[in-house]
Here is the input.
Amino acid sequence: LGSGMFVHVRKLLQDLPAYDLALLLESSPTKTRTVLWQLIDTDHHGDVLEELNEEVRKGILKTMRPEKLAEVTEGMDVDDIAEVLRALPDSVYRQVLNSMDSQDRGRVEQALSYEEDTAGGIMNTDTITIRADVTVDVVLRYLRLKGELPESTDSFYVVDRQDHFIGSVALAKLVTAKPEVGISALIDEDIQAVNAKLPETEVAQLFERYDWFSAPVVDDDGRLLGRITVDDVVDIIREEAEHSMMSMAGLDDEADTFAPILKSTQQRSVWLGVNLITAIFAVVVSNMFEDILSQLTILAILNTLVPSMGGVAGNQTLTLVIRGLALGHVGDSNAKALLYKELAVGFLNGVIWALLIAAVVGVWKQDMTLAGIIAFAMLMNMTAAGIAGVTIPLMLKRMKIDPALAGSVILTTVTDVVGIFAFLGTATLLIGY
Amino acid sequence: LGSGMFVHVRKLLQDLPAYDLALLLESSPTKTRTVLWQLIDTDHHGDVLEELNEEVRKGILKTMRPEKLAEVTEGMDVDDIAEVLRALPDSVYRQVLNSMDSQDRGRVEQALSYEEDTAGGIMNTDTITIRADVTVDVVLRYLRLKGELPESTDSFYVVDRQDHFIGSVALAKLVTAKPEVGISALIDEDIQAVNAKLPETEVAQLFERYDWFSAPVVDDDGRLLGRITVDDVVDIIREEAEHSMMSMAGLDDEADTFAPILKSTQQRSVWLGVNLITAIFAVVVSNMFEDILSQLTILAILNTLVPSMGGVAGNQTLTLVIRGLALGHVGDSNAKALLYKELAVGFLNGVIWALLIAAVVGVWKQDMTLAGIIAFAMLMNMTAAGIAGVTIPLMLKRMKIDPALAGSVILTTVTDVVGIFAFLGTATLLIGY
Here is the structure.
């Protein structure tokens, strides 16, 4: 992005779709990002904001004046406006709301009254409602009069006079039905209304389960509030799946790849701090065996092997269980069966690697006692890893702590401590006098 | 699942949707699974097979006779039949194909002619095509005559006499247009045709980018072959996102949580074997410093700290880069900027934790030389971790190796070796005589 090229770049940016502009911003270092944002046509600002990830969006919103923001939000979907507003400080947020027209403000305030990650927070209010007692012909004439339908409309919702949701009629049914047929005969029984308070991850599961394209959202009294379309659900599914992976490395799933250096350093230091404490804990355990370590240097050299293998085996089980919990495969009813299975897998793997490592050490150091000790420790630790890999995430889940976030630290602590105790402890008992 | 309860269970199962039955099967140990499968109504077998994950499905297919399978596939979508058939051994696969009627066989064979993970492999052939020169009124009358549309139809495809794709017309446009308008005026320019050979992950990106509900699939000559709907794309997105997490633990992303013990043990042993080799490598490096380790036991005790912190820091960077690669945020153009950033983050984190660990060791052991050595090693290793976390996945990607699968092993090897060398090497130079 050289100097004097601005006009050229501005032209280039004008032709890109919002998704690509968002991708470009997310892929740029912070400084370039600010320059690029100013070069993007202000008409596109709203669309681009919709597509940006949370952390990058927050950074850009900070640089915008409230009046400017109110202008930008004008063409946006209600759910997206609500999402943008949530990222703002309170005073700015009020100012933006006040500069909207009253109908828009009402809708946005309704969306804001629901938690961000619920059906109410992600719904749109641009539904088309019809009455049950009219005929197909009447509806078709009404639609032709309307001239245009909201984006991605695939069905209409049937409501009574009090706006209570009665059922959903697919557009595809409407065009294939005879003109004189009543709307009530076309209602699709498979489409259920979603309560506005339902968490978004459960909404996503319903969409996956029934292959919906869109679904109606109702309040506690069954009154229609809006609809959720599958394009929003796609984003939820991607975020949810990414969340586990990022959490396991102690990262925020909305983390910005090109965040400023100081910010990244600070975000990562929490996790490094936790790890330092558990690593020091392992050091303290090793320190308890100072005597035997000073007698036999080979024990010090081999001391990392058993904890390392236990950590890998435990993390495999942990990852499998975390995914199982997310997909709903693992619950109270089959937790016991899973525990037995992973215990057996851990034990079997323990036997295999114990024999192998005993052979390696036996040949290398010509010391059968040492080979026996490390084999025994390996078997113990792999079995413990299997048990810990199942029980830790299940316990964390029961305590309402995210297993993806805390699971691997706790697990590694367990496999480190068990591994060191089993190896150095056995060595002390057998050869340490 | 007690004895004598079979009739009762069979009734219960009859009322569950296919998605729930699939979930139930996936959540059951292998033995229960076989019993449950026999209790499920054979009419539902096809739908349930569609929903099952690959590994569980393979297990069940093994138990079925070919004639039975041909029967079961009758009501299934073409893309799902193709997926099931791909899981079968060659001889059975031929038998199933031969027992289908010729039209179905033709369609399935076409789907099978494309790779499993391309647009052609996931498309359906139940499209509705119309000519460009007819009016809205003609199309609406044709649809009413037809009486029913294929599941989740939201648009029609305009083709010429040779079946070349011309454009897509949304159902929503059709119902709001005036009856005398020509179809060519309603074509949605935003919908592009997807080539049947396009990889499914790129198809998913297009859907996310343009918020499509469905998209037409064409061959190299632009002839319409079928369509892809968003519900198939949702599955791809979930699988893709899970893939990274599972790969990082050395697991297959289609791995069955309740696979038989022997099978699980075997699947995991590959990864454990790779880890054993890298762990032995670290042991060999430690072994080079046998002299200093035998002189100072405290070095042996502290030896795990530096590699452990480097491993965690490196994995954070690695995870971020792997996600960035998957989302398309990280490429050749910004790799350098990212490298500088992570190098700086690694160095800064190194300074912080070096000072902290020096303070801890200094206070604990009252040894300022030792504190200085471990601080220096920590700084070196954290910086190396930042560099390795960026360069390893980028290099693997260039070598067409999956960074999620191989990245963390290679990274841990680097941080282990650098950590041990920096710590024990410096100690040897400064105090080892």
Q: What stands out?
A: The two ends of chain A are 71 Å apart (CA to CA).
